[in-house]
Specification:
GO terms for molecular function: acyltransferase activity. This is Alginate O-acetyltransferase. The structure is a single chain. The protein is mainly α. The chain has a two-stranded parallel sheet. The longest helix has 35 residues. The protein starts with 5 loop residues before the first helix and ends in a 13-residue tail after the last helix.
Length: 484
């Protein structure tokens, strides 16, 4: 089940919410927590019930091991237990997500023929694996409390954040289960509905529209000219932006209906003025996890410049691998690592750059790097990049080529993307320009939610967005980060 489905919006969410607050009204607080856990497991099982035992076994295993680590002395035995627990979680992740990738590379390198398993990736395994590892490490450090099992279970499977984050920390949400759940809060409900609606609009109206153009360029077109290639790359750049920020808004909104405030995971990243700033704004809870549980344990920036640079590259390499079992993902992560090192070196030299130029270069780097992130094969990535570089020529529709009189531009009846999608290239261009302005000029949706003053105007605005979104839900499309 996904947020942008009729089943979730008109059945699962309202029923779960009503029963939850009815149980709280009757002061059956423990039962209301259990109800949320069971409902979240049902939400998870809707996609594939076969993997329900996996998440249950891992949840119980990590809870019990965390309890042992919290009570044990921080000696050799505790370190071995921690290593064992982390290894079990990573082994499960690697088996399902990376087995075929590793075997494919072994077969290629050594000319072997080891059979692939073609396993279906369990939903959310990348997210809840990191969440559980953080809990085990904090238990070893004596930074956890003796949490009630049902509250721990809710921390793991709470449906708004279960599928694609944010990667929540136990100290952020488990205390809220005790303090905030019991009483219906009208302000939280209004803000939750408001930001959920914005997120729904981002996903089904904006991201899904852009998805058709990106897919046409990356997966369907055999060759892309300059304009087609730039429309393709920008379509995906903004598709991913609105898809991920839409999910994040909907997760925050759904959680707020139950009086739970999830951490901000997305803070206008395309406004970033350098690559370090970008990673402080994009998938913020992933950046936080990698910093606290990987970068700092590796030594961070405490062991000299060379070691710092190596640590940064390791973090970004593994970030790419975490996103997907493929060399294009690894290359994307490594590109960001190299850019981060360049950014650090520039700052260490004390050099400065005009902020508008800095923003432009940052955005263009991110846009080009997304090509590798999106491409299914190296050939697809090279195809798009060659077009963006103008190596496949410059063409315009006949009526515009003649009108503008540009030399060296070949007139064609239809652009490649227009032929595939049936959409005018001019319409695409204007649409992307409008989206660009929205991204740069509009306030972050979380800030809009925090400043919300419920009134008739806001109610009308949210209702209009909701109705437009519902009428555009002609087909249910998954969020892009569900694949990671």
């Amino acid at each position: 089940m996904i947020f942008n489905s009729y089943e979730f919006i008109f059945a699962f969410l309202p029923i779960t919410w009503l029963v939850f607050f009815l149980l709280n009204k009757l002061e059956l607080f423990k039962l209301s927590t259990i109800w949320l856990v069971v409902s979240s497991l049902f939400f998870y099982s809707w996609w594939n019930v076969a993997y329900l035992p996996l998440i249950l076994i891992l949840m119980i295993f990590n809870y019990l091991l965390g309890s042992v680590l919290r009570k044990s002395n921080s000696g050799r035995r505790a370190r071995y237990l921690l290593v064992f627990g982390v290894a079990v979680n990573l082994a499960v992740l690697c088996y399902f997500k990376y087995y075929d990738f590793f075997i494919s590379n072994i077969n290629f390198a050594f000319h072997t023929n080891i059979p692939l398993l073609h396993l279906t990736l369990p939903l959310a395994i990348s997210f809840f694996t990191f969440q559980k590892i953080a809990y085990l490490v904090d238990s070893y450090r004596k930074e956890t409390e003796q949490y009630n099992f049902w509250k721990y279970a809710l921390f793991v499977v709470f449906f708004p954040q279960l599928i694609a984050g944010p990667i929540v920390h136990h100290k952020e949400v488990i205390p809220q289960f005790s303090k905030a759940l019991k009483v219906l809060n009208v302000e939280n409900v209004s803000k939750g509905i408001f930001i959920f609606t914005i997120g729904l609009f981002k996903k089904v109206v904006i991201a899904d529209t852009l998805a058709a153009w990106a897919t046409a360029g990356f997966d369907t077109a055999g060759k892309l000219t300059f304009i087609d290639a730039w429309m393709t790359s920008l379509s995906y750049t903004f598709q991913l932006y609105f898809d991920f920020s839409g999910y994040t808004d909907m997760a925050i909104g759904a959680a707020l209906l139950f009086n739970i405030r999830l951490p901000i995971n997305f803070n206008s990243p395309y406004k970033a003025v350098n690559i370090l700033d970008f990673w402080k704004r994009w998938h913020m809870t992933l950046t936080r996890f990698l910093t606290k549980y990987l970068y700092i344990p590796l030594g961070g920036n405490r062991k000299g410049t060379v070691r710092t640079y190596i640590n940064v590259l390791i973090v970004f390499f593994l970030s790419g691998l975490w996103h997907g079992a493929g060399w294009t993902f690894i290359f994307w992560g490594t590109l960001h690592g190299i850019a981060s090192l360049a950014n650090r070196f520039w700052q260490q030299l004390g050099l400065r750059m005009n902020k508008y130029l800095s923003w432009f270069l940052t955005f263009q780097f991110v846009n080009v790097a997304w090509v590798f992130f999106r491409a299914k094969t190296w050939e697809d990535a090279i195809k798009v990049l060659k077009g963006m570089a103008g190596l496949n020529g410059f063409v315009l529709p006949e009526k515009f080529a003649g009108m503008l009189g540009f030399h060296g531009i070949t007139p064609v009846k239809e652009m490649v993307l227009s032929t595939i999608t049936g959409t005018s290239i001019i319409y695409m261009f204007v649409y992307i320009i409008i989206i660009f302005v929205i991204v740069l000029a509009c306030r972050n949706s979380v800030k809009l939610m925090d400043d919300l003053k419920p009134n008739w105007q806001m109610a009308f605005f949210a209702s209009a967005l909701f109705m437009i979104s519902i009428f555009n839900m002609t087909k249910v499309s998954e969020f892009l980060y569900f694949n990671f």
